[in-house]
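Per-residue structure
===
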Amino acid sequence: MSKRKGVNAERELFHMFWQNGWACSRIAGSGSNQYPSPDLLAGNGGRLLAIECKFTKNNRVYLPIKRAKALADYSRKIGAECWLAVRFSEWYFFSLEDLNLTKKSLVINRDVLRNKGIFFEDLIKR
């Protein structure tokens, strides 16, 4: 996937939060910074979400363990919920604990998507 498609997916989700009454910030270069940071930080005055975004047309998505640990550490330090957002045909959200572990990555496939993923509308209503 091109970097441009990933950025466009992040922007799509960014606008979805704003359109539903949440504030949202996109952190450019989040994966390349020496300090851990999510792709998006969203809040509504009661909840704060740190979100790593992935976009794919394939059957699975990988999140390197180092990146997952950095996201979890960042979330813990600022008191945010830690979420992975994956755009297959639509957005699905996952807790890192719901993902399968390989030697180097956490992986989401279509089975995990159906069994553990939640939709955007469900995420913002929690």
The mean pLDDT is 89. The beta strands are 23-26, 40-43, 48-55, 60-64, 81-87, 91-94, 100-101, 105-109, 118-119. The first strand starts at residue 23 and ends at 26.
